[in-house]
């Protein structure tokens, strides 16, 4: 049996380097605004929101600036950190809950109370769309939860999901910045979406939205989703469009991207090169069905001459069949690895890691997993089957049995998924 401990340790180092490159404490200091004449109101949403708020407080205090920051951010349960001045509320993700709805309502009210001499700083990161849930008038919160669940199960990419969410929301799609007008709004964002499109990150609460009610209706039709009658009627009436490019209410809104997936991939590539591997960054926007991408990446790896590290990011999908309820515990990263491991079938000299940089793949508090050439044997010894795990969407159950899970706990940042394949084949 070949000893792969060094390669497995390197894979974990690559993942950790990607996460560290997106740590809010590293990113906030270079982007502090000048002090306003009036109040400094800090609002935010996302898996990194609490860590961003804490870093903002530290950096602002180090500068000795006045006024002191005040405000509120909402983050995922377990992702909160202590702050002194900016309130942190925890709520559910990926399915919104009442705590998130209440926090979103308070955040909108704080924005509406901002004056012309105040400054609103919006700390936005991935996960903010589910956490910043405030249904449009006439839509019940339970109905919004139901359509969110249906979108998650449909396999829709994040851009489509957010186009629908924005048009069912009182706060997304630029509405938060519009509510703060005439106060200036500075958004500091950490991206978790392919292409780093500002209007897609957390459904763009502070930036103009180019999508329309017609787009939202078409997405639901194409995905064969049947919303509640109130949602269907609201989308059909199309009476309250999101702020579009050129909207005067967004004239004082500035957006800065301070953390992005590509920066994290590049940080991991430097670690791989220092370890003697030729690093190939395949991009930060790889999408598609998770298991299919896994098989494609296996074919790519088997065609490589090592030592090489194939590094990529993006957001795959796991599509459930009509009415299907997963029999296991899964996530897109472990589903990718199941597809990869099945296609590799124990090929020597090829190892991989895949994980969500926020430390949570799917709904489990597990970042992802590692596969190596001994994974099929460990599975046999543990009495689990790759094919059965794929059929049940049970990646977490499979890798728990093989001992290959990567568990980090909340990383307090989020730059989407991270994947690395090491090839030592001659």
UniProtKB/TrEMBL annotation:
<feature type="domain" description="MOFRL">
    <location>
        <begin position="308"/>
        <end position="417"/>
    </location>
</feature>
<dbReference type="GO" id="GO:0005737">
    <property type="term" value="C:cytoplasm"/>
</dbReference>
<keyword id="KW-0418">Kinase</keyword>
<dbReference type="Pfam" id="PF13660">
    <property type="entry name" value="DUF4147"/>
</dbReference>
<dbReference type="InterPro" id="IPR025286">
    <property type="entry name" value="MOFRL_assoc_dom"/>
</dbReference>
<dbReference type="InterPro" id="IPR038614">
    <property type="entry name" value="GK_N_sf"/>
</dbReference>
<dbReference type="InterPro" id="IPR007835">
    <property type="entry name" value="MOFRL"/>
</dbReference>
<dbReference type="InterPro" id="IPR039760">
    <property type="entry name" value="MOFRL_protein"/>
</dbReference>
<feature type="domain" description="MOFRL-associated">
    <location>
        <begin position="11"/>
        <end position="235"/>
    </location>
</feature>
<dbReference type="InterPro" id="IPR037035">
    <property type="entry name" value="GK-like_C_sf"/>
</dbReference>
<dbReference type="Pfam" id="PF05161">
    <property type="entry name" value="MOFRL"/>
</dbReference>
<keyword id="KW-0808">Transferase</keyword>
<protein>
    <submittedName>
        <fullName>Glycerate kinase</fullName>
    </submittedName>
</protein>
<dbReference type="GO" id="GO:0008887">
    <property type="term" value="F:glycerate kinase activity"/>
</dbReference>
């Amino acid at each position: 049996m070949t000893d792969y401990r060094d390669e497995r340790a390197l894979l974990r180092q690559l993942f950790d380097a990607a996460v560290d490159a997106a740590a809010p404490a590293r990113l906030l200091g270079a982007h502090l605004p000048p002090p306003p004449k009036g109040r400094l109101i800090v609002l935010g949403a996302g898996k990194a929101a609490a860590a961003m708020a804490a870093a903002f407080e530290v950096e602002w205090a180090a500068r000795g600036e006045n006024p002191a920051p005040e405000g509120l951010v909402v983050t995922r349960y377990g992702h909160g950190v202590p702050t002194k001045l900016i309130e942190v509320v925890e709520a559910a993700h990926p399915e919104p809950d009442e705590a998130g709805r209440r926090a979103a309502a308070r955040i909108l009210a704080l924005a509406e109370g901002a004056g012309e001499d105040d400054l609103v700083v919006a700390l936005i990161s991935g996960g903010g769309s589910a956490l910043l849930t405030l249904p449009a008038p006439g839509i019940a919160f339970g109905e919004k939860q139901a359509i969110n669940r249906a979108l998650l199960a449909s396999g829709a990419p994040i851009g489509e999901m957010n186009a629908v969410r924005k048009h069912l929301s009182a706060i997304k799609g630029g509405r938060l910045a519009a509510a703060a007008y005439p106060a200036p709004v500075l958004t500091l964002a950490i991206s978790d979406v392919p292409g780093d499109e500002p209007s897609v990150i957390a459904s763009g609460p502070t930036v103009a939205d180019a999508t329309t009610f017609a787009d939202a209706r078409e997405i639901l039709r194409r995905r064969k989703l049947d919303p509640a009658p109130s949602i269907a009627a609201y989308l059909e009436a199309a009476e309250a469009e999101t702020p579009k490019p050129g909207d005067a209410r967004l004239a004082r809104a500035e957006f800065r991207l301070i953390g992005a997936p590509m920066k994290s991939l590049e940080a991991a590539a430097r670690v791989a090169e220092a370890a003697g591997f030729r690093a190939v960054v395949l991009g930060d926007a790889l999408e598609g069905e998770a298991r299919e991408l896994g098989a494609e990446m296996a074919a790519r790896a088997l065609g490589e001459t090592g030592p090489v590290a194939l590094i990529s990011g993006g957001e795959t999908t796991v599509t459930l069949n009509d009415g299907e309820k997963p029999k296991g515990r899964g996530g897109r990263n472990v589903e990718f690895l199941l597809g990869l491991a099945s296609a590799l079938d124990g090929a020597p000299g090829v190892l991989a890691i895949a994980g969500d940089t926020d430390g949570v793949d799917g709904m489990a508090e597990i970042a992802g997993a590692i596969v190596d050439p001994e994974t099929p044997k460990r599975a046999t010894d543990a009495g689990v089957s790759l094919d059965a795990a794929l059929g049940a969407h049970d990646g977490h159950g499979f890798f728990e049995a093989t001992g290959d899970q990567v568990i980090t706990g909340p990383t307090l940042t989020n730059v989407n998924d991270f994947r690395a394949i090491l090839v030592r084949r001659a």
